[in-house]
Every structure is written in structure tokens, then in C-alpha cells.
Design brief:
single chain, 5 helices
Length: 159
């Protein structure tokens, strides 16, 4: 019995290694970030939280996590992510290039549930879930935002 879990865990690790670079949000180069360790730590923390949200979604999709547990986890993760983004915003305020400023703005907005083209789909659905507007794809059962026309997971068209 234990071997099933070990095999499944290994499968998750392999899948994570393969899929991670695909899902990593494109982060523009930040000239001063390389010398600011506090800021680097914040970026790392942010990426970890995004990753945790993706993993929760994956666990939901694979049935490892009940929708209730998923909501609870993602709500908590999103709250943490929002405060990290705020801290990054603050830290960046004095040393930003214009496009990086936009990127932060968009990420903070997405963390607050605002409208933005650049926010990751998982964060989008997480925002929808906590806002109580969650829908599910009729094709694959993935969570969708209320106004999504296409499923972010399988791409099915939803009326
Ligand atoms: Zn779908």
C-alpha cells in the first residue's frame, strides 16, 4: 500500500520538474534585485506561494484535496501572497524601471482580485473561488472564473 503513495509522490516530483518552467511567470529582469537580498527573498517567497497554489489546484484536480480543503488552503495562501506582493511593491517603489512597476501593479491587482491580462490562470480561479463566484468546467471539472469563456485547464468553450 505504501508503495502506491511512494510511486505517486515520485510521479508528482517528476511532473513538477517537467511542468515548473512552463508555468513560471515571465519575470522581467530587475537590475537592482540581484544585490537586494531582502527583495530576492520576497521574490522567492512569492514564487513559492504561487507554486503552492498551483499544487493545491493539482491536488484538487486529482482528488487528493476536497473542494472545501482547497478553498481553505488557497484562501490562506492568497492572503500570504497578497502581503508578500505588498512588501515587494513597497521595497521596489524606490528603484523600479517603468515596465517592472507595471508588472508589480498587475500582480498586486491580481492578488486583490482586480482585472488584469497577466495574472496566472490558477490565481485567477483562486480569486474567483474566494470571492464565491467559482464555477466548474463541464468538461474537466476545473475551477473557472464566472466570466471565463474558455476553461483555463482544458480549453473547452463554456457558455
Ligand atoms: Zn475544462
Amino acid at each position: 500500500m505504501i508503495w502506491i503513495f511512494i510511486a505517486f509522490f515520485l510521479l508528482l516530483v517528476v511532473a513538477a520538474i517537467i511542468l515548473l518552467p512552463l508555468f513560471r511567470p515571465a519575470t522581467p529582469a530587475t537590475p537592482d534585485a540581484s544585490v537586494d537580498h531582502k527583495l530576492l527573498a520576497l521574490y522567492t517567497k512569492r514564487d513559492q506561494l504561487y507554486q503552492a497554489i498551483r499544487e493545491a489546484k493539482f491536488d484538487l484536480d486529482t482528488g487528493k484535496l476536497s473542494p472545501e480543503d482547497y478553498d481553505r488552503q488557497v484562501t490562506r495562501l492568497k492572503r500570504q501572497a497578497a502581503s508578500v506582493l505588498k512588501a515587494i511593491d513597497k521595497r521596489e517603489a524606490s528603484m523600479v524601471s517603468p515596465e517592472w512597476d507595471e508588472q508589480i501593479e498587475a500582480q498586486v491587482k491580481s492578488a486583490r482580485g482586480g482585472r488584469s491580462m497577466v495574472r496566472p490562470a490558477v490565481v485567477t480561479s483562486a480569486v474567483a473561488a474566494t470571492a464565491g463566484r467559482a464555477r466548474y468546467c463541464p468538461q474537466c471539472g476545473a475551477r473557472m472564473e464566472a466570466d471565463d469563456r474558455f476553461c483555463p485547464a482544458c480549453g473547452a468553450r463554456v457558455s
